Amino acid sequence: xxxVFVTVGTTSFDDxxxxxxxxxxxxxxxxxxxxxxxLQVGRGSLLPVADSCPHIRLEAFRFKDSIAEDIKRADLxxxxxxxxxxLEALNAGKPLLVVVNDxxxxxxxxxxAAQLHADSHLLYCTCSTLTETLRTMDLSVLQPFLPGQPKxxxxxxxxxxxxx
Amino acid sequence: xxxxxxAFAVLLICLLFIIRLYVVxxxxxxxxxGSRGPVAVVVVAxxxxxxxxxxxxxxxxxxxxxxxxxxxxDTDRMSEEKICTFESxxxxxxxxxxxxxxxxxxxxxxHQSWSSTVVSTLNALRYSLPLVxxxxxxxxxxxxxxxxxxxxxxxxxxxxxxxxxxLIVYVESICRVQxxxxxxxxxxxxxxxxxxxxxxxxxxxxxxxxLGRIV
Lengths: 164, 215
Prior knowledge:
The structure holds two protein chains of two kinds. Helix content of chain A is 37%, strand content 17%. Chain A has seven helices and six strands. By secondary structure, chain A is α/β, with parallel strands linked by helices. In chain A, strand 5, helix 5 and strand 6 form a beta-alpha-beta unit. Chain A has one domain: Glycogen Phosphorylase B (Rossmann fold, 3-Layer(aba) Sandwich), CATH 3.40.50. In chain A, 36% of the residues are buried. Chain B has helices at 2-26, 49-60, 78-93, 114-135, 148-160, 182-187, 199-204, and strands at 41-44, 68-73, 99-104, 139-142, 167-171, 193-196, 209-210. Chain B has a seven-stranded parallel sheet with strand order 3-2-1-4-5-6-7, sandwiched between helices. The longest helix of chain B has 25 residues, at 2-26. The chains are: A alpha/beta, B alpha/beta. Chains A and B meet through helix 4, helix 5 and helix 7 of A and helix 2 and strand 5 of B.
């Protein structure tokens, strides 16, 4: 079953939850072939119940010790711009759409999402353009995100410190 | 006359201190503790993402980096678990490896105000000084939690007093693309090796080392 996983991390992002469960967005997801929608809503005030969206299989929860399993089972991850969430999804090799909370200004966490978008590792939109982005998105433009190379760090340090 | 001589002495000490500071910071690249045997490391683990990132780096360091002293904030339970899991997996490949975990008060809780941060950092320094003076590491490895500032200052002081050169190795978080973190800004002038993970930061901070993404 093709699944979309939405995560807001440890924050709250009601605008995103409201928009993604709107009938317009759900219709669009259905049209794109997604049948299941899993929401991690964090500290938000909205916790949609399963039958609030009749056209899609909906599950929602606030927190889990690890969302690794949810990410693994997802075919598309929709996330807030938090660095931890972005990296977790990309390291799992999942297509990622980051929804920027334009009510949060000067958040340094946005730096990373913006750069990863510039490097074509993720798609990027705001709540008001979410449905439009879901309709027109082309996941094939995304470039694979290669893991960082701690070995180059170790090699540099060995040389610098004279370790044989 | 007496006052004048006291003032002169204080001035002289300050001058000496500054000269020593300059010498200690400048001689970092020439200092090669690895050529004389194992390198004792103080690893400053933070909390959450910081700990995960620094353990990714530790994974690739050879057994030459022994012993490893991990420093964590006293309110942090998660990191201790992560470190023990990591070290026991490392133990399998190298039976001689050894490590300790030390706790110091946290310099700054998330969302703590800046003025009270100064007070709690001074408090953390009170614990960091004896710790670093006792461990006498060859290097301090850190990646951003506020706790690393007092530890690096203590390491610097060992060098200034001529007791031991302690290399300060700082790795800026992968989250930092355009601007350094506050810890990064403080440690940039006094660190011996300062790694950034995005080229835009290397361009702004010429002393920094850019090897691509390393975590």
